[in-house]
C-alpha cells in the first residue's frame, strides 16, 4: 500500500517533470525528476536493469523532507524516471528516509535498506533526532516498509557510540544467502567508525566488528561507507566530514577517501589511503557489482560546501556523476567512464601532433556535450599548457598543466557562478614517458576530468551559458598535443 504522502510526491513529480525541458537538464547525468538531489542510493541490478535511487526533496531545490527518488537504465547512460520509492511517512522515519542501499534477491524481491530519522524527546527533556536502520521490500516500483522496522537501532551499537549519527547502511548478500551491512557511526566523540553487521533475514542483525575508525585523523564522522573487494584487495570507501587537507590532497572539506587493505571475513586491516576525487563537486559515492563483474561507482556531483548556489528559477538542483568503472593501475584505484558511453559518440574529429601556439583553436573542436581525449607532449622549455573549455563571452573553465611541477590546475572561477569562494583545485600528476593523457567529459552543466588511466578524477559543476562552448589551447614554450573529440548525442 502506498501512503498518501508517497502518492502526493509521485503525482507532484509526474506533473513537474514535464515542465523541465530536456535541454535544461544534463544529457546523461542523472538529476532528480524535480527538486533537490543528494546522495545516490540503492544502486543495484534488478531484473535486468540498473536501478538508481537518490536522496530527494521533490518540493524544493534545497535539502529537506527526504524521500527516495528512483530511476532505471539498461546502459547507465539513458535514465528513465520511476515513481518515488520511499516517503518519510512512518513515525520512525518522519524526519527523513536517509541514505542506504539495495540488493536484488534470488527470490525475485528487491530489498532496500535505509536510515530512518525520528525526532524524540529524551528523558531529560532535550530533543534529539535518532537514526536507525529500516528495510523495505519491493518489485522495482513499489516498496513495502517492513513491519519490524527499525531493524537496527542504537541498542545494536558498540558502547559509547552516538544514537544520532548512525546511518547509511550499505548491504549485500553473501553466497550462502546471509546478509552483511556496513554502517557509518560516530564514536560519541565526533570521530568516525565503520561497523560491520550480519543477518540471516535482513531483520535481525548482529554486530560483527568495527572495521575501521578515524581516531581523530582522517576527518570527523565518516558518512556513506561502502565495502568491497577489488582485484585481490579490499576497499572501504567513506565520506569523511570536516577533514583537513594535506599537501594537494583532501581539499574538499567533506572528502571521499578509499581505505585500502585486506579483510579476513571479520576484521579489516588498512594499509593505504587514497583520495577519490580532486574536483569541487563529489561526495557520498556508492558502488555496485555489475553482472559482468565490473565494480561501478556513482557519486553525488555536488558537495555540502558547494550546494548553496542554485541558479535563479531552477526547478531541480543537483546531479549524480557519470557511473565509473573501477580498476587498479600503479597501486591506485582508477576510475574510467562506463564504456557504454562510447555507443553515444558521434562526429569524430582528430588532430595529431598539433603545435600549440599562444592561443590555438582547432576547427571542429568545441562543444558542451563531448568526450574529449587529449595527449599532451610538452617540450622541456614548456612552462604550461592550458585547455580552455566552455569559452565565449566572459566565461571559460580551464585545465592547466605545469609539466615542470607535474601539476594540473583546474579553475572554474568563470563558469557561471555568482559567489566568490574557492573555485580551483590542484592535482599532482605522474606523466608516463613525458606525456600526459587526459579525458574530459562535458555534459552541459559539468566537467569530469580523468587523468591518465583514471588514477585521478576531478568533478565540477558548471553554470556557463549553453551557447558558450568554445575550446582553445594555450602554451608558454613548446608543446604538441593530439586531440580526439566526439559529440555525445543522447536523445531524450
Ligand atoms: C551524505 C548524507 C548522509 C545522509 C544523507 C541525508 O551526504 O549526509 O550521511 O544519510 O546525506 O540526506
Tell me roughly what share of residues is in helical segments. under 10%
**Percentage of residues in strands:** over 45%
State the end-to-end distance: 32 Å
Structural class by secondary-structure content: mainly beta
The strand count comes to 32
Rg (CA only)? 23 Å
Mean pLDDT across the residues is: 97
Strand order of the largest sheet: 22-32-23-28-29-30
Q: What summary fits the major beta sheet?
A: 6 strands, antiparallel
Judging from the principal axes of the Cα atoms, what is the shape? Answer: globular
Unreliable residue stretches: none
Ligands, deduplicated: beta-D-fructofuranose
Q: If helices are DSSP runs of H or I spanning 4 or more residues, what is the number of helices?
A: 1
Description of the molecule:
The structure is a single chain. With 492 residues, the chain is an all-beta fold. The protein contains 1 helix and 32 strands. It has one helix at 4-17; strands spanning 35-46, 49-57, 67-73, 80-86, 97-104, 110-121, 127-138, 143-145, 166-173, 179-186, 192-199, 205-213, 222-230, 233-240, 257-263, 268-275, 283-289, 295-300, 316-317, 324-329, 332-337, 345-355, 369-378, 384-392, 395-402, 407-414, 424-428, 436-443, 446-451, 456-461, 470-476, 479-488. Strands 22-32-23-28-29-30 form a 6-stranded antiparallel sheet, with no helix packed on it. Strands 4-3-2-1-19 form a 5-stranded mixed sheet, with helices on one face. Strand 17 (283-289) and strand 18 (295-300) form a beta hairpin. The chain is globular and about 70 Å long. It starts with a helix and ends with a strand. The model has no long low-confidence stretch (mean pLDDT 97). Bound molecules: beta-D-fructofuranose. Beta-D-fructofuranose binds next to strand 1, strand 5, strand 9, strand 13 and strand 17. Residues 38-39, 55, 66, 98-99, 115, 167-168, 223-224, 283-284 line the site of beta-D-fructofuranose.
Amino acid at each position: 500500500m502506498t501512503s498518501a504522502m508517497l502518492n502526493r510526491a509521485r503525482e507532484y513529480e509526474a506533473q513537474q517533470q514535464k515542465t523541465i525541458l530536456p535541454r535544461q537538464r544534463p544529457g546523461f547525468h542523472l538529476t532528480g525528476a524535480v527538486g533537490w538531489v543528494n546522495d545516490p542510493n540503492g544502486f543495484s541490478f534488478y531484473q535486468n536493469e540498473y536501478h538508481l535511487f537518490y536522496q530527494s526533496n521533490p518540493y524544493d531545490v534545497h535539502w529537506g523532507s527526504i524521500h527516495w527518488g528512483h530511476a532505471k537504465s539498461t546502459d547507465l547512460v539513458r535514465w528513465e524516471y520511476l515513481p518515488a520509492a520511499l516517503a518519510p511517512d512512518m513515525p520512525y522515519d518522519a524526519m527523513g528516509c536517509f541514505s542506504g542501499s539495495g540488493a536484488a534477491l534470488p527470490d525475485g524481491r528487491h530489498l532496500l535498506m535505509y536510515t530512518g530519522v525520528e525526532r524524540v524527546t529524551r528523558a531529560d527533556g532535550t530533543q534529539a533526532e535518532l537514526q536507525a536502520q529500516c528495510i523495505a521490500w519491493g518489485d522495482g516500483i513499489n516498496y513495502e516498509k517492513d513491519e519490524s522496522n527499525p531493524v537496527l537501532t542504537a541498542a545494536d551499537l558498540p558502547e559509547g557510540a552516538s544514537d544520532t549519527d548512525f546511518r547509511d547502511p550499505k548491504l549485500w548478500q553473501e553466497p550462502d544467502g546471509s546478509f552483511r551491512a556496513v554502517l557509518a557511526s560516530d564514536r560519541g566523540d565526533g570521530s568516525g567508525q565503520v561497523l560491520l553487521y550480519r543477518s540471516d533475514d535482513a531483520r535481525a542483525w548482529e554486530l560483527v566488528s568495527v572495521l575501521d575508525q578515524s581516531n581523530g585523523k582522517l576527518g570527523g564522522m565518516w558518512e556513506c561507507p561502502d565495502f568491497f573487494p577489488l582485484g585481490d584487495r579490499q576497499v572501504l570507501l567513506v565520506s569523511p566530514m570536516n577533514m583537513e587537507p594535506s599537501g594537494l590532497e583532501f581539499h574538499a572539506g567533506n572528502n571521499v577517501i578509499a581505505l585500502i587493505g585486506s579483510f579476513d571475513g571479520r576484521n579489516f586491516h588498512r594499509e593505504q589511503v587514497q583520495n577519490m576525487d580532486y574536483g569541487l563537486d563529489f561526495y557520498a559515492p556508492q558502488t555496485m557489482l555489475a553482472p559482468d563483474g565490473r565494480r561501478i561507482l556513482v557519486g553525488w556531483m555536488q558537495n555540502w560546501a558547494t550546494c548553496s548556489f542554485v541558479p535563479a528559477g531552477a526547478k531541480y538542483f543537483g546531479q549524480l556523476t557519470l557511473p565509473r568503472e573501477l580498476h587498479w593501475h600503479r597501486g591506485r584505484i582508477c576510475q574510467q567512464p562506463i564504456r557504454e558511453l562510447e555507443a553515444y559518440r558521434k562526429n569524430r574529429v582528430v588532430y595529431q601532433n598539433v603545435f600549440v601556439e599562444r592561443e590555438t583553436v582547432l576547427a571542429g573542436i568545441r562543444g558542451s556535450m563531448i568526450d574529449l581525449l587529449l595527449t599532451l607532449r610538452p617540450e622541456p622549455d614548456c612552462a604550461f599548457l592550458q585547455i580552455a573549455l566552455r569559452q565565449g563571452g566572459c566565461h571559460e573553465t580551464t585545465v592547466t598543466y605545469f609539466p615542470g611541477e607535474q601539476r594540473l590546475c583546474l579553475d572554474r572561477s568563470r563558469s557561471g557562478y555568482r559567489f566568490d569562494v574557492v573555485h580551483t583545485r590542484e592535482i599532482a600528476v605522474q606523466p608516463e614517458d613525458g606525456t600526459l593523457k587526459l579525458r574530459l567529459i562535458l555534459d552541459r552543466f559539468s566537467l569530469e576530468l580523468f587523468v591518465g588511466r583514471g588514477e585521478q578524477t576531478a568533478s565540477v559543476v558548471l553554470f556557463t551559458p549553453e551557447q558558450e562552448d568554445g575550446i582553445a589551447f594555450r602554451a608558454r614554450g613548446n608543446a604538441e598535443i593530439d586531440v580526439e573529440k566526439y559529440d555525445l548525442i543522447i536523445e531524450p
